[in-house]
Amino acid sequence: MKVLGVDIGGTKVRLGVVDDSMNVELDYKVPTAFPLYDLLEKEVLKIIDEHPDVEAIGIGTHGFVDSKNGRIVYATELLPGWTGTEVKAQLGKVTGLRVEVDNDANCAALAEAKIGAAKEYDRTVCLTLGTGLGGGVIIDDFLLSGGPNGGAAELGHMTLYPGGVECPCGRRGCFEQYVSGSALRRRIEEAGLPYTPEELFTADDAGAKKLIREFTYDLAVVISSLQATFDMEVVVIGGGVSEASDYWMEGLMEQLKPMLLNDLDIKIAQFKNDAGMFGAAQLVL
Ligand SMILES: [Zn+2]
């Protein structure tokens, strides 16, 4: 079976034709342009015209998605005009194909759970530490997603420190304000350290080591809370921060162990930029 996987982000839209074994037949990007739906429809129609054996379309997008109805509940100003778009209904009608839509973090998690770092496990939680903290939960092959508000598995907005740092979601103290690439940048600045997040992990001074320890402590709290909710077998950590895991994994495990209810595996994500497109394809495979 061949499907089209589409990964929609703030700067580019990536489209790939893949089969069940993730052989890539076509893979290309176009700059994100508006109206976004018009761009999407045009590109999709072009591809299925050239690849008439494509049987279904999976779409991963930035924003909150009502995955049951394939509707964009809310997208930030990163994708103006995207909020409210009935992607599944509209694209399904013009193509005559099955269309599924989900949030990009959920798609990335699906890619890791089905064909990536967690493919040997049934119960997976993914944390993507990038600009924000993206979350994805797959329990016994079921992707926890959607809801009328599109807000399920928004793990980055669970509260870590009540009354803490303000979050764009309008509340305070969310996980993603402490555990994400952007959060790390802020914490470095507040500590008055002269490093970028990349430099921090290799820096050999007490201030850097203290900050890394505070960071991995918060990450450990996040993981232990998630274990109490989901009793997952594995946590997959992705995003920019995961690339420096050689420098923080040991510290994390040391802090995490006493906080866990049961043993838990921690893995680093297998896919980097490909997770979104492969995960979108997995929505319909
Ligand atoms: Zn928040």
UniProtKB/TrEMBL annotation:
- Could you tell me which Gene3D superfamilies the record lists for this protein? 3.30.420.40
Query: Pfam families this protein is in?
Result: ROK
The signal peptide here is: none
Q: Which InterPro entries match?
A: ATPase_NBD (IPR043129), ROK (IPR000600)
Similarity-based family: Belongs to the ROK (NagC/XylR) family.
Protein name from the UniProt record: ROK family protein
Q: Which organism is it from?
A: Filobacillus milosensis
